[in-house]
Design brief:
By secondary structure, the chain is mainly alpha-helical. The chain has six helices and four strands. Helix 1 crosses helix 3 and helix 2 crosses helix 3. The structure holds a DNA duplex.
Amino acid sequence: MTPDPKLGKTDTGNWYQSVWKVVCEIPDGHVLTYGEVARLSGMPRAARRVSQALRRAPRGLDLPWHRVINSQGKISFKKDSIGWQKQKDLLEAEGVVFLNGKIDLGKYGYRGAVDRLLWGDDE
DNA sequence: GGGCTGACCTACT
DNA sequence: CAGTAGGCCAGCC
């Protein structure tokens, strides 16, 4: 496929688009960890690359970056930062509940969604 | 080419 | 549960 000169200068810059595509597919009210996004993008050890991709994402992309959190179920910004507040606000607007500053990955995470499909809400 | 940085992860203590 | 250590790898200087 032909590389887009606007986005990546070289082929090495194309992996951004893989990450953005995965993030775009996250349904409302659900979250994914950086590691999961990386794996779904075909890059198992690229959790840090995901954060870079989100930071470099164009504004026109309308990317739901707030649905990506770290493996602890928490927001990766500093708690006193603007980004932290913003992300929490956006998530709560979609129905995601914070418990003691943390998100229940068992309910809103990718793993939780699969488990509910297989086992139901009881477990 | 070499070294530092980072919206991270896993494992161990 | 909190803190530490090692690993990972694309950007940037």
